[in-house]
Every structure is written in C-alpha cells, then in structure tokens.
Amino acid sequence: MGTILWLVIALVSARPTLASTSAVVLPLHITRAGTTTAATCTLIHREDRDDGVRLSFVTAGHLFRTPDGERLAQETSIIVGFGKETLVVARADVVLPAALVVDVALLQVNVAHTDLVPGPIGFEPPAPGAGFLISVLAAGRPTDVPQRTRFVTTVLLVGDRDVSGFEGCLGSAATATTGAFGVVTSCEPGRTPIVTLFRAARAFLERNIPALRRPSLTDASHRRSPSGVSAS
Question: Is the separation of the CB atoms in 116 and 225 below 8 Å?
C-alpha cells in the first residue's frame, strides 16, 4: 500500500515533459556610460526583402525606459548576438508600446543575409498548472528550463522555478506547444520568473509587424541556424 501511495504522489508531482523549444534566443548587450547590461532577446519575425532581411526581436521593455515611461539615457551600443555574428541595433529601431504595463520592447534590424528563422509564436498562454519552457542562454547556448504556470492574468504569467542564475535572463522566451507566448520581464534571485504575454502586446506587435495579422505567423518547418548573419 505504501509503495502505491508513493507512486501516486510521484505521478502527481512530476513535471510535464515538453519538446525542446523552437524559440530563437540571442544574447543582447546594452551599453550606457561605460556600463553594459546583459539580457536576451527573442526572434519573432523575419521579412525577406529585395535588399535583404528585416529581423524583429522582443525583449523586456524596462531595459530601455524608466517606470515612469521616460526613455533611458542614450545607449553607446545595442548589440544582438556574439562574436562575429553580431547585429547592431540603432536607438531609433527600438520601439516601445505606449502602455507601461506592457513591459516589452521591439528591436528591429536590417541585415544583408541571415539563416535565422523564428519559431512560431502564439497569443494564448498555458493555463494554471500547465507546463511550459523558458529558453535561457547558458554559455551562449539555448537551454530550456521546465516550468509550471502558477497563475496567469491578461498581461502576466508567473512560473515556478528561479532562472536568475542564468546571465541575461531578462528577455528569454517563454514557450508552450503553440510556440513562444511571451518573454521574461522579471527574474530576480530567489523569486519565480514573470513573463509578459504577447497577447497583452498583440495590438502593438501587429501594428509594427503587419504580417503577424495573418493566420500563419511563422514557418515552423524551418530550423534555427546559429550562423550566417551579416549586417547591411
């Protein structure tokens, strides 16, 4: 009887097994006045043009503005990627929503060529108790951290496992079976992560990326590639 009881407890407590995330996450480094902030950004869209490719990334909005909504001091540099595969984002290409409660920033950059292809995104987060993944960077490589939804609102979702030990956890993708549904906007030590949902930012994202209004947001048949990025 005792063995059966422990088996039942183990099954109830087990964390769901999800497939590895298809989200494309890259390091983000923001430098102001000699101080560099490490974060992460999530690729959500690419637009192939005659003169190159336009990439759109999402990260935490408060990396670029104060709680009162004022834009932070001029950045010396905004760099996506690492090593030879870096993209320079202009200050003018950092777009913030009017609503302060929607804590996201959209970074857009034109490149001559890239193999990067975003995974699918979705506007419906997992329900309370359901599993999802947070894609963080560990030594520059994407790593999936399993989570459960503790609770969810129209704007935010709270996970159940601290991810503060991963450098640059802000901006990491939160992904469920339908694709990336938000980005981490709080990952303080000893606390569970908070995710700002794409559904709260939907109007903002669709206004700046009209292609997201179409039923098919991305081509999930492509796989991400870590190489082949060159700025135009």
Answer: yes
Residues contacting 139, CB < 8 A, separation 6+: none
Cα–Cα nearest to 91, from 104, 81, 77, 70: 77
Q: Which residues are CB-neighbours of 68 under 8 A, at least 6 positions away?
A: none
pLDDT in tens, 61-77: 999 999 999 999 999 99
User: What are the structural domains of the chain?
Assistant: 24-119+204-221 (2.40.10), 131-199 (2.40.10.10)
> What is the pTM (predicted TM-score) of this model?
0.82
pLDDT tens digits along 44-58: 999 999 999 999 999
Residue type, 28: L
Compute the distance between CA of residue 112 and CA of residue 66 in angstroms, rounded to an integer: 33
Q: What is the pLDDT of residues 18-41, one digit of tens each?
A: 334 457 899 999 999 999 999 999
